[in-house]
Design a protein that fits this description.
Number of helices: 5
Distance between the termini: 50 Å
Strand content: 25-35%
Oligomer: single chain
Largest sheet: 6 strands, antiparallel
Shape: globular
Length: 161
């Protein structure tokens, strides 16, 4: 039983460390020149969560529960610079260390987009998206306890367009 508790504590520490890495990357790059940066806090998600349910036109996906489940959103866009390449390298190391699973990869005329998740069969704890287009890098990290089924439905719907 003692081993179980130690394993549980280690698991919780590793999940919280992953969330801190998205934030740490944001904090490291957000103040650099020419960097576009957006952070949405848990307080904002709670506020948005009070808005009535938001559904797609066909009614198949309800955004409300997904929005309410988020605890942080970090977005960085870095145009042509050494910082853009450094960010891409750091994100690649970040997802490898955190045992993220490749969810999707898309390549189009030199642009490469990869989406990674970490969680279990029912809940995604973090979603990371990295896009490289020439020397420009974009990074998006969503943290929370997102229902996997709803997140996958949103991604599938977005891929149709």
């Amino acid at each position: 039983m003692k081993k179980f508790y130690i394993l549980l504590v280690m698991l919780l520490v590793s999940v919280s460390a992953l969330a801190q890495n998205g934030r740490a990357l944001y904090e490291k790059y957000s103040d650099l020149p020419d960097v576009e940066a957006v952070y949405i806090s848990p307080a904002m998600f709670r506020l948005i969560g009070r808005i009535p349910d938001v559904e797609l036109q066909d009614g198949s996906v309800n955004f409300g529960p997904l929005i309410k489940s988020l605890s942080g959103l970090y977005i960085l866009n870095i145009p042509q610079s050494d910082a853009a390449a450094n960010l891409a390298d750091e994100v690649n190391r970040f997802v490898k260390k955190g045992n993220y699973e490749l969810l999707m990869e898309a390549k189009d005329n030199g642009e490469v987009t990869r989406m990674y998740t970490v969680g279990d069969d029912k809940v995604v704890n973090s979603l990371v998206m990295l896009t490289r287009d020439g020397s420009e890098t974009s990074f998006i990290c969503l943290d929370g306890s997102m229902p996997r089924e709803q997140l996958e439905a949103l991604i599938a719907d977005a891929a149709k367009d």
